[in-house]
Amino acid sequence: MIRFAVLVILAITTSASAQEAVTDTNGATLRALDKLSGKVTDMQLSNGEHQALGRIDVELDDCRYPEDDPAGDAYAFVTIRETGKPDPIFRGWMVASAPALNAMDHPRYDVWVMRCRTS
């Protein structure tokens, strides 16, 4: 399932970049949901920055948006680790307009990209 989702994301990213130019940004807004408490948290992250949220650590590696439509979509490469586990529980591209396309699979937390920073 994960390999399929990664292939789909790569196909979308590749076809998007072939059809429209994208702009790299220096940060993004990510939203996280703690399914146990129902608490929603918005995180403002710069590229390379990470933020702890409960038992997970969210790191933003890159965020891009269509050059001619900054509000149109956001593509963020995110790495998420769980406390005490060496391997990431998620590492890949998230697409704001299709959050379920490459969603993090975790029993307690959901994380998705909202938008790239445009200024």
Automatic annotation (TrEMBL):
Entry keyword set: Signal
Keyword Signal: yes
UniProt signal peptide: 1-18
Superkingdom of origin organism: Bacteria
Pfam families, A to Z: DUF2155
Protein name: DUF2155 domain-containing protein
